[in-house]
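seq/struct pair 1
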Amino acid sequence: MIAEITQQDSANTLLNDYIKKITGQGFSGDTDTSYATRIVTATDNSIYQEIPQAVIYPKCTKDVQVAMQVASLDPFLSLSFGPRGGGTGTNGQSLTPGIVVDLSRYMRNIIEINEEEGWVRVQAGVIKDQLNDFLRPYGYFFAPDLSTSNRATIGGMINTDASGQGSLVYGKTSDHVLELKTILVDGTELNTCKLELEKAQVLAEQTNRVGEIYNVVLNSCRDNRALVLEKFPRLNRFLTGYDLENVFDSEMTTFDLSRVITGSEGSLGIVTEAKLNVTRIQPFKTLINIKYDSFESALRNSPFLVAANATSVETVDSKVLNLAKQDVIWHSVSDLISDVPGVDVQGLNMVEFNGETPEEIEGKVTSLCAQLDQLIANKEAGVVGYQLTNDKSDILKIYAMRKKAVGLLGNTKGKQKPLAFAEDTAVPPENLADFILEFRELLDSKGLHYGMFGHVDAGVLHVRPALDMCDPEQEKLLREISDQVVALTAKYRGLMWGEHGKGYRSEYGPEFFGDALFTELRKIKTIFDKSNRLNPGKICTPLDSADSLVSVDDQKRAWFDKSINIQVRESFENAMNCNGNGLCFNYDQDSPMCPSYKVTKDRRHSPKGRASLIREWFRLQEEQGVDLLATEKTLIEKENDTTWWERFRNTQKKRKGFYDFSNEVKESMDECLACKACTTACPIKVDVPSFRARFLNLYYSKYNRPLKDHLVAGVEKTTPLMAKVPRLTNFFVNLPPVKSALKNIVGYVDTPKLSVPTLASRVNSALMYDEAQFAKLSKEEMSDIIFIVQDPFTSYYEAELVESFITLISKLGNKPILLPFVPNGKAQHVKGFLKEFKSTASSANEFLSRIARYERPMVGLDASLVLCYRDEYLKILNKDELDFKVQLAHEWLATQDWNSIGRIENEVPVKLLSHCTETSAMPQSKNVWSEIFSNLGIELNTPTTGCCGMAGTYGHETDHQENSRNLYEMSWQHHTKNMASETILATGFSCRCQVKRYENQKPMHPIEFIAKNI
């Protein structure tokens, strides 16, 4: 079972020498040759996989320069490099067999802003949304808008000349680049900007490296100007990589070398800094969501909408719309895109107007609405309805839905998944409907399903056919479709790539450029990188080079995946389905997704990273002849057949440095907080805690478990015993020698104190469940009973909360009954004790199913444990539905009549901070609490927060103290620092413990607050 990959396989001698050399020359960033990092970096948001030799993470331009200068020395001339940003490309632009230069980890500094002149200077690793969050207080934004804006870097946008929504008005990234700082393959620093043609000619006459580049590019673009203008279609989404046309202005009075570098996909140099122009935010917005009876109607109606002088016109088809409706994000927009009675909406156009004043857009909006009313009345153009919104937050919700819906395409059921490989074609907008109809005929003729969305104002539509790349016949279809779409695009005088760059589609470059102009591209590549060492194979190769362009037929992720047993693939679908869209790299610190990545910025510690690692682990286990599913079944249903001695011996070998890829996977899994944000926030629903638990169960069949895992897994057995003598237990646990032993031997800190007095002494015996007595009760006598389902945290460490809930239930006119404590098993699952968890779940299921027969509500207080019944129980017990349902407190409270309670007099502001697991799984929970408090006359402030950093036992483990604190400071501390002047409430037990640890003051649960004030 142990995958033996030698250190020599991970990094050869030349590579090690290179790493040592750059470190010795002052490279201050990180270097990583581990197999785990290489596997995680081997994919992007495309269908391809290319394992690099190593990954380096520069911290500044000087680091990049050092890396390139050393690489230009013998014996390192055979090394190649590929710059990487957010890794969100859909065509494999950042994949390389050489050394990845990842600028996203550290180079995220916004260097300066000039408000008066409207520009900003940034490092290449700055994330698009990060930049706009910085610019917003100044009244500016960086205009090119991408669906991946919360993880796409500026450097990546520059290298693919990215664009998106609103490009008709705002243009592409290249339209906003004022200056670039680029490091060439030999370490030369090249600074470029728009110059008067005479100045560019002077530079071209210099006899240095910069002069040679200016000379070749200037002459190539000038001498072929007429051919360029004739060859390239007049489109908003003009041809990228390399932009031979727009290096000159229309009058040929200026020359800008940055235009060639922008869109070059890192094949000419490594962009480290950029000066960008920024756009004034227009304060007034209106969005009109227009609904259609067919997608064709939506497409054919788009020129009419563009003529209305809108800022942007976006479209989605019914496939994308219906996927969004099945996701938690639909809750945020369901009232903004409501159904049309009696009509099946098959298409949606989203038309946005912006203006400096309300009057500036009022006339346009009124005119368009009047025309839409007429179309609806006359049943013309397929328009069946529309909705209008002026609220900026609502508009953002709608666009967030559309952005996520793009990723949701990858979560369609079955083996065939919509794939991005020929999906950013651009044609003149007036040709779009006819082009798409032929495109659909092509896909329909092959019996394929697909989703469509895009920017109809610019003639760009994303079409993602569903294919199973593990099926050789369907892989052949990918080539057939690609070739036919190239021909179809040419027929409609369009481009194969209108937004997402070339990458592995570079082989089609000669067909679009023609031999003469493609030769000019090769001249430019030659002067920048004559040995083809920068992102080799992308866009073009140097003149006289024997190297080939990359191809759509090149190595794909599926080539690795299909070597995994099909039963394993199906069983671990929640890992196998990851398509690399990278939403887990969301930079927003207040998003619950994904705390371990946010705090480490290490992509191994992300859902995508962990899915990549576990897939490779499956493959390597297959190579070793291990039957994973049979082994897992034995471990859960019988006994581990590996002896204690064998586990001890394997553990000792690990300590001595014996290489096993399993240990690299384990290192990544250890950083997971098991918060489950990925199960809902990820559009593919990559469920890391589920496959992590299964991995740990298998891993520890071969290695010894640490003592702390046994203590955590047994917490529901030991805590009730300790609670019999709570004062003695608290005294003992807080003795300095015991605390030291827990920290240094067990690896556990800040143990919470047991409640004194205990819950048992707080609750009247008449409120305790007695099965014999309950069997005698009539339905009428049971009519007001509410069962409280205990959990180990609130029952034994926060008995005052359970007592408050009992009080509140009584005040609402019901009779609370405290069920006996029955272990839930969540901790066992988190630590991968699946045999024990199955036993615990079976017992709890049997007990709670008996209680369910009374047909009265069962309510629990801790979100993690209550949600465990709804998720982990179904999987371990192999059920589609349980015979019982446990509600969370707010779910039950929302159904109650609060008129009998009255209003609470409260002058201090009240703020509720939500548990991240609850927020992810139940996005409406904050709204429910707000409504409950509104009934009591209190306005509840519910800010968006990420993970507090505690997450069950994660924050108590010694190894995680720094990350736990950093997460708290990142997302929570600015909300809790004013606890003296406002009332802070928190729904999570872990969250309350974390605040108490760092602020020395514990927030109340909202139930405690209500119970104390009514």
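seq/struct pair 2
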Amino acid sequence: MILATDIPKTTNDTTGPVSAVPPDRHGAQREHLLRRMLRDLQRHEGGVLWIEGPADAGKSRLLAFAAEEAALAGALVLTGSGIAGGGMPPLAPLLDALGAAPAARDGESPSPRQPMRRVEDGLSPHQPMRRVEDGLRNLARDRPLVVVLDDVQHCDDLTLLALRTLTARLAGLPLLWVLAARSHLDMPAVESLRRDLLTGRAARLDIAALAPDAVRLLVQNHLGPRAAEADPYLPLCGGLPGAVRHLCAALLSPRSEVADGVRDGEDPVAGAVVARRLDQLTHDAKELVLIAGVLGDRLAVRHLSRMLGRRESVLLRPLREVLAAGLMRVEQQHLAFASPSVRDAVVATLPPPVRLSVRRRSVDLRLAEGTPPAALAAEIAEIAEPGDERAIRVLETAALELAPHSPATAAAHLRHAVDLSRAAAPRQMRLTARLIPLLWETGEPDEARALAREVVQAPPDAATHAQVWLELTRMGGRFPVAQAEAHLRRAQHHHGVPPQLKDQLRSVTLLNRLLAGEAEETGEALAGSLARDRDTHPLNELTQRTLRSMSACHRQHWTEALELSEPVPAKAAELDPAYGPALFEVVLSTAWRAALLGLAGDGPAAADLVEGGLAEAEQRGRRAYLPLWRTARARLLLDGGRLREATRELAAAETGAHAPRTSAVSEAALACARARTAFHTGDDAELEACSTLAEAYLAGDDRQLRRAGAWIAVLVALDRGEALTRHQLDAAAAHLRHGFLHVTCVDAGDVVLLVEAALASGQRDVAAAALEFAEERARLNSGLPLFAAAATHARGLFALDAELLAEAAERHGDARPLLRARALEDAGECAPATALNRFEEALRLYTTCGAERDGRRVRGRLRKLGVRSLTTAGPAACAAPGPEWRGLTKSQLGVVRLIAQGATNREAAQRLFVSPRTVEAHLRYAFDKLGVRSRVQLARLYALEVESTSACV
């Protein structure tokens, strides 16, 4: 009898006897095999058992178990195996098995394996097949016979033919065939044999990978207390018991033995496990896995076939083998590795030069197939070498494509392109010129200016010099080079600069000067420039309209300014593909129009523009524009009386993560907004900080900053009750006459504060001049009611006319609650008979807005009238629902409060700086949550549950 331990060495090159104990996961399969085998043996019947599974799944161990159990049951067991690599003599596995049969038949101990019997040259294949058939018939005559044949996929064609023939011709004998093969090898001869056998009487047994629990048990059996060492490597084994055992052996072996042939820096254990699994694949399958490992986690079959130089149909065979081995899997339309660690270990088996070569060929193919450069830029940056002109072009093209959507990524690609082009100075300078605006835009102004200084001092050509100077002009502030005016003239007049670029540079230079407060000096140049630059590039036309609008504003023609600030063209991205809607001129034009709309009383439209710009800057990472948009939003909130929200927005613009400024002038606009907010809220620390900043502005030589400092000084003096000199008041008046700070309009009601400050300082003539300015501005802009309201307020304050002040309060309306409250307060001060009601209404408005300083002043006046039971909250604040009321959101609560107080949808929209449609949506959701069907029901519920429980004045 031949014992199971005499099964020859398998194709995975393991040495020594194979244990007959299968893993626990295969217990059910072992029992099934045992029952079928014993049944056939007891009945003296023959048959075929076909066992298949991936390499290292445990087929050889299962065959060893089958051989041992059959021998114990009294059967004669013959064993054989196919050998990988080909070159086997015909019928070698069967002849080899029969070679040991006589000793076993006589009951002797098994002898060493005999040399394989060879088929003599010239003999017909039928003669050796007849010899095998006769031998099997003779052996099966006395007792049951079991033929165990492993690795059928490696058997020669004649052996496969013999198996197909003999299993049918010897079916009546007590002969049981136990055949094992790897699954899904796509070998026609083996598949044909498998199909024929399974069509007949053959039973099939599939060997699958082990479950995680079974794997852990197997590791515990081999490593004992060291089992945890195997955890990082288990994903490499794919649940295959043979791979798991090999892993355990590697962990138990000396490190020097495992590291043999492994490159420095790589994990020898992982390398040994993956190398074993790769060695079990055919050459084509192994090549496929190696190439796929270098190419990435998600791989298209079409690209893989092109990399391997084979048709997709030819690739199916090795691909099925790889999938059956569990090294890779199919994910939708792509191939992926079983785990990232498997891919990493596979890639580690290749030398770095080979990996680099494969990646370069992959990039070449994808570029040839039309893959966008933006999709390949990051990979190209990793594999390109200095001076690689093609890589530089791809990176430059990718940056151009990505700049409108992801400027930070575009900047990273251009950095790589600059690094690769260090050997070519002109080329490098041109790439640097493209990089400069992206760096500034994404919040790296210092590096952008440093690079710009290098380029303008040694430009590769006139056009690049002019382009970089245009970017420096867009950045604002002081130029980082000496003789800036000479550089600017050279850029504007050099014959090598395209006319459109000259027009852009001229217009942006004028715009920059206007933003810097140099409107007086820019007037004639502006008119001449606009006369020359008619019918030019659409971007230049947009800039010219912005210039005209700002010039009109400086001349106090605000209606004209609003008309000139038409919306940015819908196709703004076409104005300059490198920027799209984030182009400097487009951003400033949009912010300027939003400021004018807010001044005209169209808060929702202004808010839409600001919110859109802010969202785009945040999503795209355009950090340079965030302070601009946050300041614009804070101004709208401040004008609408939402002081707490304005304070938070200004804090984010000042000290948040997005601190880089567009220019020094925008800092002045931010400082003025901070001072106005602190003035109303009574934040002494903030107002003191603004006062310190104003002193620095006043001590400087920048005219715009000095005007901003003078205005902040007015607010500080009003807060402290201090008198101002005529010089200080004149400087503040110059701020109001100028009309704007950067792209922020001076508020229409600021003239009222100037009149108040001048009267309090005993400078009645200055107050009269301010009043005359306000009335002339209102006359020039009859279509803008805020100017008329401010002029009426200033006249009433100057003349102490309560009726005019009450009229001003009505004209201010809900659009400017703080100005309305101040007009009511001033009217009450001028007419004691009606003071109580007016003071109470003013206090309500101040409290609703969060104007604590103004509220304290009015409460003091109420106390003088004998009103003692004052709370810190006004009626509207008392009526404000808590954040937990009925599960409404903050936005819904705001709408409910206004609607319950009688506001229409449009009025609520204006108060909340949203569209009427948004109010309607919030109201609809609130109706559903509150279970009401009408505004009347809503008002009753609000009064019952909110207003009735609040303590009011």
